[in-house]
Amino acid sequence: MTHTAHDHAAAQGAAHQHATHQPGSHADLLDLDAEVLADHTASITAWLPVDAAPRRIVDLGAGTGAGTFALLARFPEAHVTAVDASADHLQRLREKAREQGVADRVRTVQADLDAGWPDLGRPQMIWASASLHHLAAPEQALRQAHDLLAPGGLLVVVELSGFPRFLPADAPESRPGLEERCHQAGEHQHGGHLTHRGADWGPMLTSAGFTIEGDRTIAVDVKGARSEAVGRYALNSLQRMRGTVAEQLSAEDLAALDELLDTEGPGSLLRRPDLGVRTERQVWAARRPAPAEYTEWRKARWEEVAGPNGKVKVVAKAFVTGRDPQTFEGIPGEWATTETGALMVSAAAGDGVKVGGIAVAGTAEVPSGTPLEFPGGQAGFAGGADGSYGLIVTDEAALVRSGITGIERYPYDPAWVFQGEYREAPEGRRIEVPRLTVPRSPGTFSAPVDLAITVNGTEYVLTVIEEVPGQAQVIFTDLTNGDTTPDIGRWLVLPLGAPGTTLTVDFNRVTLSHHHLAPPVFTCPLAPDGNHLPIRIEAGERALVRHR
Predict the structure, then answer these.
(1) pLDDT tens digits along 127-147
(2) Alpha helices for 178-250 (secondary structure H)
(3) What is the DSSP letter of 224?
(4) Is the sign of the CA dihedral 392, 393, 396, 401 positive or negative?
(5) pTM listed for this prediction
């Protein structure tokens, strides 16, 4: 299914090929195309707007694997299903996969996409390079690609803006402009067969339900280090073109072309030092939108991490209860509650503590939610009531110091959404779980219910912690820990319910422990005993992204 820029010549070239100028096989040309344009293909895969590395990719019109192997290199955990109409192309692709040691990451499917699409699973990325414009109904193919992709998945369309040029405009010396005239003859004869070549795919992608996340034009100008490959590429391509345009060329142009294609002659292409590959590649990256609720959750999650009061900005926290004055590391002043349950702070003028913008010089009440200010530009707030308050100090500069710029996650996959049920636990149950201190220290937590969930036919029952009133915290480990996720496990945060309550459990919303954001501050609990899932939960957050 994949075609090079000169594939338009292949259909009729066999009937007209000059006896002494037979081109190599189409597979040979595809391999040359991959070799010559390798750096440009790598630059495209590096540019892709990906925040969750895909693990399942489909390469539509894979040919001999130019895109397949570039994608495998870019995404080391991915598996690629390579689809093509040619059995020969796929056989060569499999041979190359074995040679490169990635055969276990490649599956090939022979299919004519104009005749119907086979079962290709639920990929998180589809790559279509120089293939869609050959389909009889590309608009329909885009709709099929949309429905095939997992929600949140990415479709990448790569097209050549025009057929490559190999010779300078004034070459050859005997017939300047020969290559351009050959292209014009080919366009005249076969232009109607490729009506979507050079099309603006943006409107068609939008019409098919995609959201355009990026598009770019890449100028291709290859020469120098790849001159030998460029020579073979030019020779094979122009040999194919000759078979198509020979009857449209003048006798003088045909003779000049034959001189270039004569590998033994003094005018051979392979002897020219001025060969290059000049063209442009257009790239569109289009996403099938994930469910709106998930998108909104992601925004809220990033706000929780890096917003005005984001966890990564927290430099100190404390829990205030009791009437005796208390001091806390990293928080100026003395803190206590009154007999009526109000929160109070005592500080000297030089301590630099402000409550609601007013400097404290003595003792002041701290209403819940009132902004606090501390020396060095630090801020804070207290929340609570009735003699129990949480106190937080934040520093805007902490986000910059952390280097955190995002969260790496698995691609959204609706297959990781299940129904769960809260199960009864012994009344008043409290459990002991180690906290992430150095060294580890014990912590005791309320564990009011269990969560039962069935995954792939197996029921698992996990202990629920209630560290924040009304919030169910399910800390678990699975077989991804220490591999693609942290070894300390991850969290599911859910609304707490009574035994018998059913709820949606979406593993796409699994989060990292707050401990990763500010380890000295968030000495979070580890997973309770028994909260291990003996499967790979390839969903949710994986790691923090930091400046390199």
Answers:
(1) 999 999 888 889 999 999 999
(2) 178-190, 201-207, 227-245
(3) G
(4) negative
(5) 0.73
